[in-house]
Amino acid sequence: NARLRLIDLAKHYRAGELALVGVSLTIPAGQVLGLIGPSGSGKSTLIRCINRLVEPTAGQVLFNPGSGADLDLTRLGASGLRRARRRIGMIFQEYALVERLTVMENLLSGRLGYLPFWRSWLRRFPPADIALAYRLLDRVGLLEHANKRADALSGGQRQRVGIARALAQQPALLLVDEPTASLDPKTSRQIMRLIVEVCAEHQLAAIVNIHDVALARQFMMRIIGLNAGRIVYDGLPEGLTPEV
Ligand code: ADP
Ligand code: ADP
User: Fold this and answer.
1) Alpha-carbon span 168 to 112, nearest angstrom
2) 39 lines ligand 2 (CB under 6 A)
3) Closest to 13 measured CA to CA, from 60, 39, 49
4) Above 70 in pLDDT, residue 218?
5) How far are the Cα atoms of 10, 46, 86, 99, 192 from residue 19, in angstroms, in the given order?
6) Separation of 229 CA from ligand 1 center, angstroms?
7) What is the pLDDT of residues 26-82, one digit of tens each?
8) Whose CA is nearest to atom 26 of ligand 2?
9) Nearest-ligand number for the alpha carbon of 230
10) Nearest C-alpha to atom 26 of ligand 1 is from which residue?
11) Cβ 74 vs Cβ 6: under 8 Å
12) DSSP 8-state class, residue 210
């Protein structure tokens, strides 16, 4: 029941520079994997090659959305990729919220994949989608903030919106890029705990790029260490040595 399999994934940004080299790994449904490594080791590149925000140079990205056969994301055309990306949630360091929209509007625009041009668009959503959005807001502890503008929220609240927005897509896989980089230590732990919990609740596979090794140790059941674009560690947090 592999949700995601990377086979010999490589990325060369330009001749001679290898950002990723021969990266192979398998992630089952429900597993949350923490990605660590020094700055420049290829963590962001790895995450972005999966949904092709960055085009991999070689290798395969096999994604199983849960029904049917594996899709090789590296071989999909534009429309196939768009369809596959609907099942892949992204959570970013900078939240990527639309400041002038409310929390609820941000949630639903993630589901749409484009921005609304009129204010009455919320009424056009299927009631089931709106009900799901309210359930998710409740889950991330933001129900009473549904109608606040995004720019009125704290950093931790904004990341909770980011998490709820990714979940509103009903993804099979979450890609999470430095979710706590802009947050204080206490809020960072709350956000990391929330990510791990919602993945367990929804049987989501996730790859989390964590800049903080202590956080990775505390919350991740599996850690991948990258160095110079190669996997140098794959295992339990207990086995990590200071060199990784
Ligand atoms: P971080 O790795 O902490 O996310 P960086 O400052 O390394 O931040 O990268 C910021 C942006 O610049 C990213 O979008 C990254 O892809 C891009 N970038 C990083 N290194 C290079 C480079 N050598 N040449 C061009 N763009 C780069
Ligand atoms: P990390 O996320 O671990 O900090 P990155 O994936 O951002 O690492 O970067 C890996 C390597 O690829 C670095 O050497 C970086 O300079 C290079 N790199 C990243 N983005 C770009 C880019 N857009 N163009 C050229 N080189 C890049």
Assistant:
1) 10
2) yes
3) 49
4) yes
5) 7, 9, 27, 33, 27
6) 14
7) 999 999 999 999 999 999 999 999 999 999 999 999 999 988 899 999 999 999 999
8) 13
9) 2
10) 13
11) no
12) -
